[in-house]
Amino acid sequence: MDMEESRIALIGIIVEDLAATEDMNRILHAYAPYIVGRMGLPYRKNNVSIVSVVMDAPQGIISAVSGKLGMIKGLNVKTMISKASV
Q1: Kind of pairing, strands 35-43 and 6-15?
Q2: Cβ proximity of 74 and 19 under 8 Å
Q3: Judging by beta carbons within 10 Å of its beta carbon (0-12, 13-18, 19+), is residue 15 exposed, middle or buried?
Q4: For residue range 32-58, what is the model confidence (pLDDT) as tens digits?
């Protein structure tokens, strides 16, 4: 792990275009050592999926993941980061 202090983060992703899931999964796989857990829920009624990703990582890593995911067309990404270091 990086020498920077770790933070707990929750990344919320709404997948509005299912074609974006391959790129999303590639990024999440690359940062797997920092991922505590992940839950995906298909919401077929509205033709979207909701994904929650919990991370324990330095703020720079969290920002990198969130930024990369946010650049993928078809994803809506929001991130919450703990104020206290862990």
Answers
A1: unpaired
A2: yes
A3: buried
A4: 999 999 999 999 999 999 999 999 999
Strands (E), 1-86: 6-15, 35-43, 48-58, 75-81
pLDDT for 62: 98
pLDDT tens digits for range 7-39: 999 999 999 999 999 999 999 999 999 999 999
Order of strands, edge to edge, in the sheet holding 6-15? 35-43, 48-58, 6-15, 75-81
13 phi-psi bin (left φ>0, alpha ψ -120 to 50, beta other)? beta
Its pTM stands at 0.91
DSSP 74: T
Residues 6+ apart with CB under 8 A from 36: 8, 54, 55, 56
